[in-house]
């Protein structure tokens, strides 16, 4: 197997050929990390005669594992199948299948998922007679998981539930996902003969995405490699963005202390982006102090038009601009699946989803759910819908135990049965069942009915925003989220629903309507909008990707929009505590976002944004300022592409009430109501009434 500059660059060749002893490779974004890793393994086998089974390559995802296997097979053929390539968890599962007996488990143990973990915890606490009513089972599991991954210590309250849970798992020969690592580490630490067996077997250890390892993962890799010291780690400290999951960027420093003789190589040639884009990325990440110095470079210089900056007057204009720009790129030959809209937090997606739906642009939420399909949003909407119609069984079944009221499935099914058999109201069925259930359930059901009746009597007496706060407070819904692992994201999504209600309240076409009437109209339109998008997705085809930056790591797109670049949103005020570590991770997230772009990078923000029910005015993100330096401005890259709101508006023909218009999907219609942001159109074809953001690209005057 010949290594030369036709397949690898000079730094990649150095990293590939240095196979004896500890090696650390800093692989910048788009620098051919996976290519270097796979060529190194192929070189070890083809050119040095190393037995494939003596090589252990550890990845972080099954997708990465499959990609490495496929590439190796292309390079060296079937012999690649003998290389041990797996994730940390898969590796530890294999070790435990052989060795777990020393810990008192059977080799036939079952690995349980989150649903079975919850069942196991509840059963364990029941057997141990442990009261956890002040915490949810999910919350306790989250604490246990963080403890197992070395992210926090167990406070006294959680020690008894933790022990009861672990005892239950062991008695029933069960292992959860985190235990795969914990138990393998325990075996290696306490049974040196077993550890030596694996040290002898795996003589060469390679770890991909090293910056994402947590403490226990690094310890396992280090233990296995300790005998031969052939430990090769590759990653990028500038792309370490999973601290909230336990990833410890300090493992890079730990590696250097544990292996002071290690050789270090830097891969800084980028094969993805133009130099114009990379210059901004380098300036941005250069503000971090805790990093290996590197500047990405590319043979593709690019042009000034590779980067665009847009500041909207508000979030409507920003979202409208993004939708319009995507439509322009599509008309100019780009495919929808070559375009991504990236944001720091899921809560930002709502406005862009709406803009794309109204522009008729197909999209998909990568690694998550559409805003209106997120559990906490669906729960809150179900509450509102049930208050409007307290006989809706579907909404009743969704909210009766959100939060938990101790009403079991059997009782709920019996209530539904009484309604169906007697053709009576739901509240009447609840009254009829009182004699069949325990005193505690009687009280819970009575309180629930009183809650709904109280809220129903108040819905038309205050603004929708104030009513929403009242509903969330009186229902105690936040207690259902309080112990969730992703509590902050869920609460932000819930708070953002207030923005939807503020918008509904403010629509001129809703003047004179009761709140209950406004909501009913809004729900009808939400369902219609969702069904249009769902139909587009069912039709298949190519879609624009909407994604958080965390989910998009490892992906690349020809065109990338990074949106909502405003202080307190990005960097995220919920993630910033004290010290430099948090802001440096936020900056790394921004760096990951901007380095996803191959050809075009569009950075946007808004002067004002309706978020969490309040109109906020934030400064431009400090990351945007860092990306765009004076030298960058002098190149006219930003100024030439800056579309001022007034200029954008002046180029468009305003649509007003009474105008006849045509929509690309719905045909001809007449505008029956309009304001600065919204137009409502009655379409001739099917007499449908639909709302759109004003001046978006799919509507034009006739």
Structure characterization notes:
The chain has 702 residues and is of the alpha/beta class. The longest helix is centred in the last third of the chain and has 24 residues, at 515-538. 48% of the residues lie in helices and 15% in strands. A hairpin with a 2-residue loop joins strand 14 (597-611) and strand 15 (614-616). Strands 9, 10, 11, 12, 13, 14 and 15 form a 7-stranded mixed β-sheet that branches. A 6-stranded parallel β-sheet has the order 3-2-6-7-1-8, sandwiched between helices. Strands 19-18-17-16-20 form a 5-stranded antiparallel β-sheet. The chain contains 29 helices and 20 strands.
User: What is the strand content?
Assistant: 5-15%
- Number of DSSP helical runs: 29
Calculate Rg over CA atoms.
29 Å
Largest sheet: 7 strands, mixed
Mean pLDDT, all residues: 87
User: What is the subunit arrangement here?
Assistant: single chain
Class from secondary-structure proportions = alpha/beta
Terminal-residue CA separation: 66 Å
- Overall geometry comes to globular
Helix content: 40-55%
Poorly predicted parts:
634-652
Number of E-state strands: 20
